[in-house]
Amino acid sequence: MARVLYDLYVLRSFCTGVELGSFARAADKLGRSTSAISAQLKKLEAQCGTPLLRKSGRGLVLTDAGETLRAYAHRLLELNDQAVAAVSGSELRGLVRLGLQEDLGESVLPAVLGRFSRAHPRVRIEATVARSDELRERFALGQFELALLWDVGMDLSCLRGEHVMRLPLQWIGPASAQACDAPWWRRLAEGSPAEEPLPLVLLDAPCPLREIVTAALQRQGTAWRYAFNSASLTALWAATAAGLGLSVRTPFGLPGHVRPLDPAALGLPALPSMDLMLGRGRGSADPCVERLAGILVETIREHMGLA
Questions:
Q1: Could you tell me which residue ranges the HTH lysR-type domain spans (predicted)?
Q2: Is the pLDDT of residue 38 over 70?
Q3: Which residues contact 234 (CB under 8 A, 6 or more apart)?
Q4: What is the CATH number of the domain that holds 51?
Q5: Share of the chain above pLDDT 90, in %
Q6: What is the pLDDT of residue 226?
Q7: Is residue 186 domain-resident?
Q8: Whether residue 101 sits in one domain with residue 80
Q9: Of 45, 71, 148, 208, most Cβ neighbours within 10 A?
Q10: What is the extent of the structural domain holding 299?
Q11: Based on the domain organization, do 279 and 154 belong to the same domain?
Q12: pLDDT tens across 199-258, in order?
């Protein structure tokens, strides 16, 4: 049996079309004709010996084989791109200053630094993990080439960059059944009338989430109190896991000892979403900065299963 060798150009067309939800849009993005993309897909299905797409309403969805191939195709394309970057960018030198918040630093920074350093060992990265207000102020002063910032209605007029993703704010509670045995939690879970204000576990002020959460509770007519405040996100997770109160964050980087809650089931108000932005400062056209920006966005989307 002849060995099948997949064409990376064909795999890129396949993945791009699935990602964009349209192979016509994929053709525009890749600078090819729609007929050329269709011919590539036919070639790919012939190599696989099974359909990769099936009709669903007016569109197309992946078959089981298509899902499997897509996962491998992403890995093959990523490895190819890393090899190209490592060879062509092996002589890159310089410094990139990156700012990001604690939840992003813990969940994606190790993978980003590993991928980048393997491809560009002569480029130095200075990463600063700080609170949102500090990052925004320092970015405005030109102290970062790149900064990952959550946009929750703040003034980001200084920001020049790209939208990475939108994620919902979620009520967060303890994952442990033992921690859920607190009286306030039992009353909340049972839908009993509140005998005391809802305990909140939030970051110290200034924190935009404090205003969002308390305003939502006030509109609902729910009394609340600050049960635990800290400048550390790790301390926040510890207090939430221990059952001291409820916290609010996005689903990004949640540790295993806490869990998102269903607000409707607990009588809690719905919360808005937040946009994650990648700000680009002066010198962002530098090849080192551009390469790190690309790896950052790829890693974040992979972390959330969006790649």
A1: 6-63
A2: yes
A3: 102
A4: 1.10.10.10
A5: 23
A6: 94
A7: yes
A8: no
A9: 148
A10: 94-164+275-303
A11: yes
A12: 999 998 888 889 999 999 999 999 999 999 998 889 999 999 999 999 999 988 888 899
| Judgement on whether residues 219 and 257 belong to the same structural domain of the protein | yes
In sequence order, which residues have a C-beta less than 8 Å from that of residue 45 and are 6 or more positions away?
Answer: 51, 52
Q: State the SS3 of the chain.
A: CCCCCCCHHHHHHHHHHHHHCCHHHHHHHHCCCHHHHHHHHHHHHHHHCCCCEEEECCEEEECHHHHHHHHHHHHHHHHHHHHHHHHHCCCCCEEEEEEECHHHHHHHHHHHHHHHHHHCCCEEEEEEECCHHHHHHHHHCCCCCEEEEEECCCCCCCCCEEEEEEEECEEEEECCCCHHHCHHHHHHHHCCCCCCCEEEEEECCCCHHHHHHHHHHHHHCCCEEEEEEECCHHHHHHHHHCCCCEEEECCCCCCCCEEECCHHHHCCCCCCEEEEEEEECCCCCCHHHHHHHHHHHHHHHHHCCCC
- Specify whether 40 is located in the same domain as 56: yes
Say how many domains are in the chain: 3
Average pLDDT of span 261-284: 86
Query: Is 36 in the same domain as 109?
Result: no
> Which of 144, 166, 131 minimizes the C-alpha distance to 95?
144
| Domain assignment present for 13 | yes
Mean pLDDT of 143-148: 92
Determine, yes or no, domain membership for 3.
Answer: no
Q: In this predicted model, what pLDDT tens digit does every residue of 233-247 receive, in sequence order? A: 899 999 999 999 999
The vertex-71 CA angle with 65 and 110, nearest 5°, equals 165
